[in-house]
Amino acid sequence: MIGLDELQLAARNHGMPLELLREPITPAGLHYLLIHFDIPHVDAETWRLEIGGTVRQPLELSLADLRARPARTLVVTLECAGNGRALIPDHNPSQPWVREAVGTAEWTGTPLAPILEEAGVDGGTVVFTGLDRGIQGEIEHDYARSLSVDEALGDDVLLAYEMNGAPLMPQHGFPVRLIVPGWYGMAHVKWLRAITAIEGEFDGYQQAHTYRIMRDANDKDGPFVERMLPRSLLIPPGIPDFLSRDRHVDAGRVALRGRAWSGQAPVERVEVSDDGGATWRDADLDPPLGQYAWRGFTFAWDATPGEHELSCRATDAAGNTQPLEPEWNYGGFCNNSVQRIRVIAA
Q1: How many CA atoms lie within 13 A of 48 on its CB side?
Q2: Tag placement on the chain: N or C end, fewer CB within 10 Å?
Q3: Each residue's pLDDT tens digit, 317-329
Q4: How far apart are CA 18 and CA 240, in angstroms?
Q5: Measuring CA to CA, how many Å separate 265 from each of 174, 182, 211?
Q6: Contacts of 107 (CB under 8 A, 6+ apart)
Q7: Tens of pLDDT, residues 40-85
Q8: Distance separating alpha carbons of residues 332 and 4, to the nearest angstrom
Q9: Is the model's pTM score more than 0.90?
Q10: Taking a C-beta distance cutoff of 8 angstroms, is the pair 182, 227 a contact?
Q11: What confidence tens digit (pLDDT) does each residue in 190-219 have?
């Protein structure tokens, strides 16, 4: 049962209504949001991004400085690592996502690698610190995450200042956020204020003490959550029941559509089931939107009168396939089990 604390989180954050899967690019106001602490107030004129630590040449860059640099636009799907948490029993209380913590946007910014090269990064780790500060796990801290130097120097890592052709909204990280294509949402640090090179590994709370696949609260050896596992979602067909969200369709041919993605490798197959996963048939894939974006799929379903359970599952080019059931872990992370939609055809 969801407690009051989780309900408060759910009221502050929102997912993308699944009917918006019809849009290849998610409108900014409907893209999912998870805000750990508070949305900081930022004056764009006085804001500065500091690049320091173990570098040969520290830098301080304004928003105008970043905008004057070469720009790139990438279509990137972002998904919260906790997407599907509410479907895992007895997890550590946190944001109670069902399956709506996802969105795809056009992110415009300047590549990070040339800035790190200009600063002369020396060390094994790059830490990204935001302006948002709070308490989690009884530890007061700024929200901060790290990447290895090799990961931070990736060609497609961006310091983004626009979303869907407009300046970032406050809730999406204005004035600048990190975009790390293929990674779960926790890596895309918002409201950036500092990029710091360090020797060794970063042991900040959001890096070392959460976002791990843990057996219990004291498990310090669980693997880190990093790249998105394959997932597919159907646009719920027909019309919904208000409370249960069960779907109602007319019997006969029903055109099913959805989106699939993976941070491990490109999606190369999507299958659809109408009998709870007992049998599967291949869907047709749309052309890719981009290397890091979800991929559309379609399936012509012959709906017979009665109740059905629709599901879909994605397989990526690395051979990873969605499981039928979630794998339990303490934090409720990375639940990419198949979607199940109850449909009544009449």
Answers
A1: 8
A2: N
A3: 999 999 999 999 9
A4: 12
A5: 30, 9, 21
A6: 73, 74, 75, 76, 158, 160, 162, 163, 179
A7: 999 999 999 999 999 999 999 999 999 999 999 999 999 999 999 9
A8: 18
A9: yes
A10: yes
A11: 999 999 999 999 999 999 989 999 888 888
Residue type, 291: Q
Residues 6+ positions from 23 with CB-CB distance below 8 Å: none
Beta bridge mates, 271 = 282, 313
The residue behind tokens 């041919």 is 253
d(CA 162, CA 146): 22
> Using CA atoms, how far apart are residues 335 and 32, in angstroms rounded to an integer?
17
Beta-carbon count within 10 A of 321 CB: 16
